[in-house]
Design a protein that fits this description.
This protein has 231 residues and is α/β, with parallel strands linked by helices. The chain folds into two domains: 1-18 and 67-104 and 151-231, Rossmann fold; 19-62 and 110-143, SIR2/SIRT2 'Small Domain' (2-Layer Sandwich). The protein contains nine helices and nine strands. Strands 3-2-1-7-8-9 form a six-stranded parallel β-sheet, sandwiched between helices. The longest helix has 18 residues, at 213-230. It is elongated. It starts with a strand and ends with a helix. Mean pLDDT is 89; it is low at 24-28.
Length: 231
Amino acid sequence: MKNLVVITGAGMSAESGIKTFRDNDGLWEEYNVMDVATPEAWHRNPEMVNRFYNERRKHLLEGEPNSGHFGLAKLEEQYNVNIITQNVDDLHERAGSSEVLHLHGELKKVRSSVDTNDIHELDGWELKIGDKCKRGSQLRPHIVWFGEAVPEIDNAIPIIAQADIVAIVGTSLAVYPAAGLVHYAPDNCPIYLIDPKRPNKQLSNVTFIEKGAGEGVKELSHLLSKKVMNY
């Protein structure tokens, strides 16, 4: 089977009711990102940062995968599908996708504040100040904050380098280093970009699908099926 690599962003989960930072009425309307998503914020006010992510986890537990998530999972019947997501939710996994790489961490996991490799599944939605790792340091959200390295980018590059087809869903490709991933796709690799608004980014070999995640993935599946039939 051919390799289909899907890069997903916040728009992928928006139809599940998961708030994004950038949208109107999004999280940036309620919070200053520098107060909740930087290492400095954590050191300055861990209670506030921790409360923010507890709220995000609780909200996530109330959400469900949307038709776009399920549509991508169903494509595994025809393709080797690898999803590289900027999202920290687990909606791809809950929809049935088997290969998901989280670039920016995972909301339902926590890690040691002194050892980035000491990662744990959180039981429930609430992390408490005072919950510590084995080395005695406070556990923190397993999230890549602004100003921190994105270690999974090194694992994402070889995946997209082996792509036969690339699909981009719900991201403007404005945040680096994730935004640079598409440039590692092989020359002449067809790219499908699903988003209600066309990004300003210049890309070659792109088919634009100007729809939301659910309808966009449905159209992507239709286009890929037609392409297979024409071979």
